[in-house]
Give the backbone structure.
Amino acid sequence: MVNPIYIIAVLLGIGFILPLTEKKLSKLGPWVFYAGMIFTALVSYQWFRFFIVSGGETYHIFTAGVKPPLSINLQIGLFESVLLFVTNLTGLAGAVYMTKQISETGVRAMVLLLLLLLGLNGLILTRDIFNLFVFMEITAISTYSLIGMDVKSRSLSAGFKYMTAGGLASAFLLLGIIIVYSLTGTLNLDGMIRSAEGIKNVKLLSIGSMMILFSFIIEAKQFPANGWALDVYEGTKPGVAGLISGIGTTAVFFGFYKIMPLFTNETLKIVMWAGLITFFFSNLMGMKQENVKRMLGYSSVAQTGLVISVSAWSFMLGNDKLIFPMIVLPLLFNHFFTKTGLFWIAGLVKKDTTGLWGSITENKILHGIFIILILALSGFPPFPGFWGKWNLVLAMSLDSNFFYIWVLLAGSLFEAAYLLKWAGITLKKDKSKDILEYNSYKMLALQIVVLIFFAVTVYYFMTGNFDHTNGGLHFYLPFALGTGLLLLPFIPEKLKGMISMSVIAVYAFYFLPDQNGIGRFFNAMFLSGGFFLTFATLNRKDRSRSFYPLLMLMLGSLIALVNSDNILHFFFSWEIMTLSSYFLIHRGKGSAEESFRYVMFSLAGAFLMLLGFAYSFPNLNGQMSFGIFAVPGQFTSLSFILISIGFLVKSAALGLHLWIAGSYAKAEDDTSAFLSALLSKAGIFGFVMLLLAMGAPSAGKFDLAYILSWIGALTALIGTMMAIYEEDAKRLLAYSSMGQVGYIILGLAIMSGLGWTAALFQMVNHFLIKGILFLAIAGVIYRTGTSEMYKMGGLIKKMPWSFTAVMFGIIAISGVPPLTGFGAKWLMYEALIEKGWYLQTGMAFFASTVAFLYCFRLIHAIFLGQPKTEFRNVKEAPAWFLIPQYVFIMAIFFFSIFPRVLIDRISAAVEPFFGKSLTWDGNTVISSLGYWNATAVMTIVGVVFVVLAIGLFIKLPKVQKVKQFNIVFAAERPETPELTHFAYEFFRPYRRAMGWMVRPYATRFWRSVTESAYTVSDALRKIYTGNGQTYIFHILLVLVILFYISTGVK
Amino acid sequence: MNIIFLIGFALMITGFWGMLTQKNMIKIILGLAIVETGVQLIMVAFGFIEGRTAPILDSAVPVKKAVEMIVDPVPQALVLTAIVIGVAVNALALTFIIKMYQKKKSLNITEYRDLKW
């Protein structure tokens, strides 16, 4: 293998030769330059392979033929080789990226890049602290010059600020080095660390190490001594900024990492919290940012802080060998590649403010890469950042450091907020056509980096702590279809839909029979619902590369959620579900704000859920199985509450329901059916799992199940109340959905066999009904082009099939016999009364009655009354919509006549946990309070219906047909349909009486929360005044604080 | 020896004072240079051993007796390197200032606040 010292020699050599031979070798110069770059990459690859494949021992390379302390030594081990390899490869990509700049500026740019790479390689390799200083200065000087190459006032002033900060950092590094040297008598890092323990003059040693620490805090751009860094990221050309943020930060971090063993635990604690503070505040300040490069700068600073914080913590635990590859490296890689990539994309798009980034959509590949990098940076699975954070959260919980997790997740949420907002802007098609310059070299460089990132992602995904034996195919397969479809954009839409449907069918055929209990029950619902609702999407005319992949990912994640064996599976699926549903909602017209709200609520919920997991995780000494919830631990009730909030967000419980109406309404019409019928059940499934694993713990005096029951009942009531005042059919259905899911939560909270049977029965009922209603409304909107109900009217004759479907739907939803809704409500009331929760019973009953009001509106405003002139020629909804509706109606009828088929299955799933609660006598179900024979009820209703129908048919010939305006109102003859069909604000009188119940209290509350977050963000970032002198002041302030802490704490 | 430390620290403080109070960018860089000089002085002071001579091997200091005769050579080597690097950085900073002055005709650091927040 080639001695890594040749990397330094070759880089330095070429760096010297190039300017000397500029004139003679003018054509050859670039070739020599790239050859040098490739050489370094190859050498580091060789070492990388050596350590990965043969797992070799760490190598020490001694210079000058003698051992330290007399000589400088380099060290290359597994970690060094990995970092060296990615650094040199990215450096090469950077050189490719700047090809144009290099050919313009010639030798100068090449020399600077070579020197930069030299410095970074040295930083990674050296084990001599003074040598570290030298390489840091080489890195710094080449970076200053690279920044200054772009001779503009902005980049120059940024470079100047950088230099003052860098100058101070190096001054203190020298001071620290000399102090530590004077105590330990060596400059060799290993020697220093070895002899540092025996030093008597602890005070001087701590001052020395504090100065080294201070220097690295500046170099690693930690808060608040980092104003200059943000200016550098903003003012520098993206090519250079990408290199600074990616390889520059990584090498400086690694230098810092090597010094850390020198620090005492007290100092490490300071580093740990300082890093976390940087992560938190930088992300908070980033939220208000609209300048792309500065935003990336904030994110870059934040990520560096996190990596440093975790490293310091790992040394405190003395567990650095394990934590480095499991947590630090994935976090570092995630930052490294995404930041380099995003900066470089910023160089291609050439738009400073995020609002103008719509033009990126012109280049599909670039846009795809952009979205992937944003998701990776936001910490979504399956990217390395997800694994890093996941491992970090669990490891922190084992260390009982819960406050750390809170801050970490809050910071992550801020980061996701500004990144997703930015991504959201690009997903909305921008009409203004900008000509993007697709410099092929820049694209090539970007693709190299992204390719390595994919390899890293695959590596972490494969080794990502999944329980392969148990999860296996069941778990992975659902994601495969969506991902597969994403890679086949050229297939016609209809074919994609059919492929999706057949894969769902095949999956159901092969895997469903293997499953059992509650999981099978939920999966049967998701798979059958997915199959028939996908049928409706075949009506689509537009080509889209993302719709079916996203739909299948969402469906797949629901199935994977049910199949999950441990908390990692569960959270992984949950995140994919959140993400895919966010993008699906985002596809709807004018949905940007609503989908953003949805994803922020969902993410916050998911993070709280993760926190809940973390509080329970230590219960079984680091096992990830659901068993952790069954073991009573210190934080059982807190864990329960936090996880519940995650599920309540997904179920749009009262107070957390802000997103529901907007996102259901703005999503595409066929998508809304999926959201309401299927996605809303994810939270329910979560509750089922949670309550089964944990029971219903009590927090102090409060029985949490009892509180949950009130949340369910109030959600049912208020959701229904809000639905009746809606003019928009889809918003009405959304609130109706909220109310109905409230019942399910109420049923689960009862924690009895009967309650759960009622809840699950209601869930199936709701799934079928919302499938019907949303598809029927989708059909109406498809024909009329509006979702405002008062604009419609009299559509009964134009769309009789849709009308019939809606009618059956509302009969079933309102809970009157003979359809399934009655069964659900009957079981629910029985369970509530049995439990003795009379108030909740009353409230549920009242809500159920109020539901008639909005049900009525669906029929009255849309289908009854006089047809409007503009809708005179509308046709029946397409068969694509109608067929699934009627399949669902048949299912409703089947379950209405033979509820035993369904109840038996529910009982089979529930009885193992709660015992038997219902007995059967033929078709009559008997509970402790009464009995119900659905078949008999259906028969009687059927007979009455037939008798009346026959009577009507006999009298029918006598009916006189009239024309549309053959009516008189109050002695006037109306001439327009608007005057005959009163539908707008139909329930205004009720609003006067009961409007106080639906005032947007929650909206106001959350708005003030958001606004204050943004205000704080804006106020905080004002500390970065742009004045270089203020930055110097910040730096010296940090010095004073550090000095105070490190000498004062003892 | 203590007096050299004190002078070193005094120089550093002076440098900080200059960096924090002077609006002129050249003066700020001079402040930085003064800080660096202070640091270098302190570094040399750390390697000083009472009654010994400079670590230069010539006729006055025979190689075999060098270990007992000279002060610690390492800090001196470090200081040399540090001085070189410091000079390079300061020179580069001054060229930046010249370029900035050519653009805006101002040496006042408060005028260069395009990048902020």
